[in-house]
Amino acid sequence: MPTPKKKTSRAKRGMRRSHDAISAPAMAVDKKSGELVRPHRAHKGTDGAFYYKGKQISASKS
Length: 62
What we know:
Blueprint: H1 10-16, E1 28-29, E2 36-37, E3 43-44, E4 50-52, E5 55-58
Antiparallel strand pairs: 1-2, 3-4, 4-5
């Protein structure tokens, strides 16, 4: 198996790893309940119905 001829410097290693950091997921505030939700995803409200962009998209199952 081939081996590198030179040691990779800290600067080169750091530049390669500069995009590996984990970022926090984006969050938005729901208009109706005020809770944090993921944007561009439907979420279940306290009444059991699903909401998207503050509008009800399905009825509750009760």
